[in-house]
Amino acid sequence: MLSSPMTICGRCEGEFTAEELTRHERGPLLLVHCPDCGMVLGSYRRR
Ligand SMILES: [Zn+2]
Fold first, then answer.
1. The organism sits in which domain of life (predicted)?
2. What pTM was estimated for this model as a whole?
């Protein structure tokens, strides 16, 4: 079993794997949202 890093939302305190998070492309960035409350949890530069 792979141990994928869990992301913890600071607003609703939910724990999510990378696959559960909502992704949204914003120009050159990939924004990652909490699937429950929609808070932005991070942004990544797309390749
Ligand atoms: Zn949340």
1. Archaea
2. 0.76
pLDDT in tens, 7-35: 999 999 999 998 999 999 999 999 999 99
Q: Which residues constitute the domain of residue 34?
A: 7-45
Q: Smallest Cα–Cα separation from 22: which of 13, 14, 30, 32?
A: 32
Ligand 1 centroid to residue 21 C-alpha, Å: 10
Q: What is the distance in A from the centroid of ligand 1 to the CA of 2? A: 24
Q: Does 2 reside within a domain? A: no
Residue 38 lies in a domain: yes
**Nearest by Cα to 15 from 4, 24, 31:** 4
Q: How far is the CA of 41 from the centre of ligand 1 (A)?
A: 8
> Does residue 1 belong to any structural domain of this protein?
no
Give 6 Cα–ligand 1 centroid separation in angstroms. Answer: 13
